[in-house]
Amino acid sequence: MLRIYSDEISEKYFDKELKLEGWLQDLRDLGKIVFLVVRDRNLFQVTCKGDLIKEVRAIPKESIISAKGVIKGNEEVMNGWELLLEEVKVLNKAETPLPLDPTGRTPADLDTRLNSRIIDLRRRDVTETFRNRTRVMREIRDFYYDEGFIEVNTPKIVRAGMEGGATLFKLDYFGTPAYLAQSPQLYKQMLMGSGFDKVFETAPAFRAEESATRRHLSEFISVDAEIAFVEMGDVLDNLEGLCNRVLERAAGIKLKEFPRLEYDEALSMVGREEMDRKAEVEISEKVDDDLFFILNYPAEEKPFYIMKKGERTNSFDLFYKGLEISSGGQREHRYPVLCDNIKESGLNLEDFKYYLEPFRYGMPPHGGYGLGFDRFIQAMMGLDNVRETVLFPRDRFRCHP
RNA sequence: GCCCUGGUAGUGUAGCGGCCUAUCAUCCGGGCCUGUCGAGCCCGGGACUCGGGUUCAAAUCCCGGCCAGGGCGCCA
Questions:
Q1: For strand B, is any atom closer than 7 Å to the CB of A360?
Q2: Which listed residue, of A173, A218, A252, A364, carries a Cα 20 to 30 Å from A79's Cα?
């Protein structure tokens, strides 16, 4: 007999004999009658009377069971039906005690939950985060496909870093040093010289920063886009369009324009001189909208590949509920200027040989951005800690499970 | 890298020099109960992060290690 899922049961199955399988989440023993709460994709009740009671009592919670019996409609019971048990098999016994309570009634710290993440993921409210990740990622991809982007995959094992190397994970590449990519930045820019015109990538990025905050990870998913023949305003429009589409379709949040604040304007709003974390938080509190841009950062706050505009740059950061979720801008596409910028940043031109080559042989003006996917989910769902949005997060102290 | 906090049964907690043979809930084991749905009731089980020190006396105070949480810097 084939197993059927509890969410497939409707009135047409009433009074038929069926087999359902899942985890034994709970057991309520009333003596001559025992109620089992079993979980497959959802919860359902198995009701047990008579000789089977002794057998059923011995099954530890969270064991995998196979339950055969007749479906009975009953308005008093969850789902409006119950399985009257006729035969039960234990397919795999769970050990006891469990490392945490999979129903969530007894709370557990995030650290405890992450140590036993698979058990933690048995909770419906925990998996909701990951259902949202799927929805959001699907909307992101569809947005780019609809806009004519090509999806690319750039290498995650790289020779040189992008801004020095202090935040890179070093590894041994057949006897020579290599690094885990902290961003696809250089590759997606190079691709602008190929004629692809519009590219995007969703891939892990690695940062060896010793950060220990609720919004940092050592490995996170970066959504990167780069577009040729555009200026900064076009890039802003594209990112705004992306966020609006995703929020509308994945979270039911209505379309609107994001405020675009000049760097100086944003600082003076809160009477501050420096754009530190405190200023960012204060600005976010002052702005009514959940999402807003800050434009034209000073050159010393931005990397060499951003196009300068006097003392400022054609750059922006995007904030969502006080979290910096994206940064980008117009890139420097003029070879001599780019070389000067690299030198001014104290970097070695020789290290950027392969990056620079396409800039010598016909590189169009271009711009783009990187968006922190995990942070986006964190802000969208209002979660305290970005680690909650990742199945198996990696941070300064965690490389397991 | 810097700064601040904290580590008590499997899980989450109370206790913060002697009343601790360590609280409560959940959990696990046993018992009662035929309609529970966070079932209920009774009995039992299980813990002071590690090392050193102070003291007549340490879960409690001090120092160090380990682990964890948070903030800053940096960033997505």
A1: no
A2: A252
